Amino acid sequence: MSILINLAGIILIGLIIWWFWLSQPGRRKAASVTSETTIIVDDGVYTPALVHARAGQPLTLHFDRRDPSPCAEQVVFHGLDVSEFLDNGKVTTVTLQDLPEGEYRFTCQMQMYQGRLIVD
Ligand SMILES: [Cu+2]
């Protein structure tokens, strides 16, 4: 009986290690490739926070800002030299042309909102 309990404990520890260290959030689900999508800006998170696009093709993002706090008022695409102000309660469209391959972060100016753009 104690062997079973020990075994259960080991399995549980293994699962915890896997969950917190080995599985990377955002990579658990591969986002499908898109050329146009709506991103909801609310409650400190972009939804979706992971966008997957094709290199060399235009990408259109509609930012639907529902968070009135100043934190959410700007979106900055790091490494792409693109930033845009978002009006609260409105949808702001950002079009990115000729994206080079790579991985880019998009955040608010304080980097509390966090998103990831994968281009390949
Ligand atoms: Cu912010």
Describe the 3D structure.
- This protein has one helix and nine strands, in the order H-E-E-E-E-E-E-E-E-E.
- The chain has 120 residues and is an alpha+beta fold.
- The protein has two domains: 1-27; 36-119, Immunoglobulin-like, CATH 2.60.40.
- It is extended, with a radius of gyration of 19 Å.
- Copper (II) ion binds at residues 71, 108, 110, 112-113.
CATH architecture of the largest domain: Sandwich
Strand percent estimate: 35-45%
Please list the strands of the largest sheet in the order they lie side by side: 3-9-8-5-6
Within CATH, the superfamily of the largest domain carries the name: Cupredoxins -  blue copper proteins
Radius of gyration: 19 Å
Question: How many helix segments?
Answer: 1
CATH secondary-structure class of the largest domain: Mainly Beta
Class per helix and strand makeup: alpha+beta
Shape: extended
Distance between the termini: 52 Å
- CATH topology of the largest domain, anyone? Immunoglobulin-like
On the 0 to 100 scale, the average pLDDT is 87
Fraction of residues in helix: 10-25%
Order of helices and strands: HEEEEEEEEE
Task: List low-pLDDT spans.
Answer: none
Number of domains: 2
Largest sheet descriptor: 5 strands, mixed
DSSP, total strands: 9
Bound molecules: copper (II) ion
